[in-house]
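assembly run, all chains below
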Amino acid sequence: MKALPYLIHKEVLQFKRNPFLPRLVIMFPLMLMLFLPWATTLEVKNINVTLIDNDHSSASRRLINQLKASSYFSLTNVAYSYEEAYKKVEASKADIIFSIPANFEKDMVNGKDVTLQINANSVNGTKGSLGSSYLSQIVNEFLTEMRSGNVTPKATGGFTIRYFYNPTLNYRHYMVPALMIIVILMLCGALPALNIVGEKEKGTIEQLNVTPISRTEFILAKLIPYWIMGLVLLTLCFFIAWLVYGLVPAGSYTSLYLGALLFIFVMSGLGLIISNYSSNMLQAMLLMFFIILICNLMSGIFTPISSMPHWAQMMTYIIFPHYFVEIMRGVYLQGNTIPELWTNYVALFLFAVVFNGWAIMSYKKQV
Amino acid sequence: MADVICVNGLTKRFGDFVAVNNITFSVKEGEIFGFLGANGAGKTTAMRMLCGLSFPSEGTGTVAGFDIAKQSEKIKKHIGYMSQKFSLYEDLTVMENIQLYAGIYGVEKETMKRESTALLKKLDFENKKDTLVSSLPLGWKQKLAFSAAIFHHPKIVFLDEPTGGVDPATRRQFWEMIYETAANGITIFVTTHYMDEAEYCNRVSIMVDGKIEALNTPKNLKEQFHVDSMSKVFDQLARRAKRGE
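ok done. output:
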């Protein structure tokens, strides 16, 4: 192990002299943490409603005003016929057509059934279904209010809804811990892989292979710098989360760092395996791309695992970032502790052992 | 003198292709051994087996007293290697490269300091020690690479076409370094395409299509083939080759 400090020193020097890498490593987490929490939102807002008011009564106007008051809807158009409104949908200018029938007020006052029509464009499924259910909620409230004898404040009873852990239902708070995972996912896996394949392409790896350094030394020298880098970047992310989003973990930093360290081991091990089986950068990049894409989409970072079909939920057991997602959100938002999340730590640990063992086994000095 | 390299029936197959076909030879301590052959004759493959980079398909061999198939990691402590493609890190400075290789072979810090200063002085590189290798001319790189390969005083140094692309004056200087190294007891195993360099070797082997077709001193080879230069010896042998380039 005497050669290890020299090899690590070499990696650090090469990293510093690279004209591109140090910038990437700083810019990537900054971009991800500063911009993406605002953009990667699944919250349904700004639902464009095209209105057909066939009644033009005071009741219909009141209903419309209630719609306008909601932050979810924006009344973008008023149409005079269904055909006209439908054209707006076709032009993607409307998500929902809301039509109020003629004699709406009269029928209501006379106690007859009234039928309002909601047509939702469900090309964007979430927007369509959530939009129409919000809208029907508003209409129902309006109707009960009208029937129970005008606008007097609601009587007793009803519900009080309180949201746990993310009380303001702030989607950014949900995304910030997950985006930190992507930082590690991208940098700590891809960079060591590209580094080793780069030495293969230049032929420098052969020079190292004729020296007596051991496989373990070689691999540790490649990984230790990225482990440290991962932890430093994570700390930067924690800082941004506090500074920009006012988000501090409800749980302890120890449990976050422990999970992160295990996850970094897993990712760098994976990067090594990829580099051992790829003979050039392009191969390594495409393979990494493929894996990172699946990890991003299936680990629960963007979409909840619990709403995936059963077979997909089964698959997430091998989508290793999923365990770290549980840890990050659990600790950050719910204040979970290591004993509460221990299965996730153990799973990450096992993946780390398997991947790194495999990486060392598949690295051959002599072929 | 004792043999530092000794191989017997060494063969390497890649599928159906026999890159190195049953070669047998030995190299004595302190010798400058020229390993010649046309492109694709199997020189590099043979050399890679000797350095412990590649497993032999058949045959046995020892380098510095260790088995090439089973004790390759022990061999690596006692050899230096300079490949045709690369030897130094282009994005490190002259001094950083020397320190890296010295560190890898476990040279003590004090020794490293003393010897690297002496080396830079000898090479007349003192004012270049903090220059990035990428900005050095090729000839300088090769001299430096050679010095790095023998910095840890190996028993044998393997040079794979060390002077490719270098101008004649630098090549001469390079061979002076080789002679000096051999005089210090380090065995030189060198492949080359330059036939004038073959004349400088103590003994020369010529590979054709994976086999060693001739092995002797340059003088004896010239007599054997009734010609006046190594270049003509090589031409006669290389003409027999069936493998294309």
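Chain A is about 65% helix and 5% strand.

The longest strand of chain A covers residues 47-53.

not gonna interpret more than that til we talk
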